[in-house]
Structure formats: structure tokens, C-alpha cells
Design a protein that fits this description.
Helices cover 39% and strands 21% of the residues. By secondary structure, the protein is α/β, with parallel strands linked by helices. The strands form 4 sheets. It has a 5-stranded parallel sheet with strand order 3-2-4-1-5, sandwiched between helices. Strands 6-7-10-8-9 form a 5-stranded mixed sheet. A two-stranded antiparallel sheet has the order 11-14. Strand 2, helix 2 and strand 3 form a beta-alpha-beta unit. Helix 6 packs across helix 7.
Amino acid sequence: MAVLYVVATPIGNLEDISPRGLRILQEVGLIAAEDTRHTRKLLQRYQIETRLIAYHEHNKLARLDTILLALANGEDVALVSDAGTPAISDPGYELVGAVIGAGFAVVPIPGPSAVITGLSASGLPTDRFYYLGFPPRRSKERIALFSEVVDIPATLVLYEAPHRICDCLADALSVLGDRPAAVARELTKLHEQFVRGTLSDLGAHFNATEPRGEFVLMIGGATRPAKRKPTSTITNELGMSVANAETPAEVDWDLIRAELQRLRAEGWTGTKAAKQLAKQYELDRHQVYNEWSNLPE
């Protein structure tokens, strides 16, 4: 039975494609590419002459029958995007679903992904992350999006265009607060750059420096150091135990100290770190600074 191969291609440096990926592109009968001009550069680099057709947002319905017919005729097909792993923030996922629905096999050929590449060198927690894709273009809708994820305790990852990065950073700051963040620009390319700091730091940087290239924005997830004490119980007049909802919250200072250690490792001063965490967790700034002063060297 014919196979649809989902082939990851370089996000910049053409050397990043795997030997297996090159072999599949050479052996299939048809390559469905998001932009044939872009993909042709990769094929020419490796002297691959496989037949190429365009499959993108504006022709995906028309091309679907062509691809399914090729598979029905026993011809393997490779799906590639402009860069990175297909079906991530592009129409490829619809093709994958249709091919599965038609009873054909789908085989992924792993490789580059801007999400994973940027996250791996961001300096932010990577044990959990929440991918947002491309945020809305309008500020009101971006603010609504950030409001939906404000309490998620995982690193937020999204793509953004250079002409909207400053507005996006400003909206994120207004909703999420001044969290640790990183921007990866032009990954694996000649002018690759990481900018790390807080959302306000990044906003100041890109307002002073003309943003260029393709951006991956990563924002620290929500942290909640305040945790509820076990609810106490009282006995009512009927002898039944009921919860006392007025039990006060207890500050998790272990988590506060861990946050302070992380900020110190990132180069923050004690005054700035104490001010940031005191505001974020509604604590006394002097108490937080005392914890900073007592951190082990």
C-alpha cells in the first residue's frame, strides 16, 4: 500500500535534513510542497529530481484529490512545508487526516522544528510547554488569547512576524505580567539570535532595534506559590462536619527561593528580583529580599 511521508525539512541551514529524509524525497513519486520555489532550492542542493506540486492553504482542496489519486495508484507521496515539520501551523494536518481517513498509511520522518529548536536553547523550563502557534493579528484578540492561558503553569511558545513582535510583547506584558521570556530569531541561519530577559526587557530591545527575520517567542508559565492549608472542619448543630472556607493561604517559600535562584542565575539583581516576585505573588518586597540575601552561594 502507498504511503504519505510527512518529511521535516530545514528551518534555515540546509545541512539539517536527515539522510533518511533525503532518501524518502528521492524515492517517492510525488512531493507536495507548501512553496515549490522554496522546496526546489533544497532539492537542487541534493540533486533530487522528484516531481513537485504545490499544496498550500489556498489550493488544499483542489490538490487533495490529486494526492489521494496518486496514493490509490500505488505512488508514495512526501509532504513538506516551507521549513520545519509539516502539519504544525500549516494546512498539512488536514491532508494527513484525509489520507488516514482514506485508509492509507502516514509515516513521519522527524527532523527540525522551530518550536523545539527555540525552546531547547531558551533557558526557560522545558518539562512542560504550551504551543500557541501564530497569535491573532489584532491586539484585542491577542489579549483574549493571553487571558485564556494566564494560569497555565507551562512555558508558552508562539510564532510571530517581525512587524508585530513589539505589539505582541506589549499585549503579553499587559496580561501576563513581566515574566521571564526569550525570543529566538532566524534560527539556524547566519544571523541567528537569542534575546533573553523579561517581557519588558524584550519589548525595550525590539522597540530600539528594528525587528527582522522569523521569531519564536517563549514566555515563562504561571507559577502559584500560595497554596491552601488543609481545610479545617467544624461541627454544626446536627453533628455534621463541614469545611471551614476561611482557612488562610500559606506562602510556599521554597518555591519563592527557587524562583530567586533562577533569576540570580539569569543575572538579575536582588532588588529587581525581589520587586518582581513581590508584585507577582502579592508579598512584602522586604521579606522577599531577605530570602534573596540568605540564598546559598
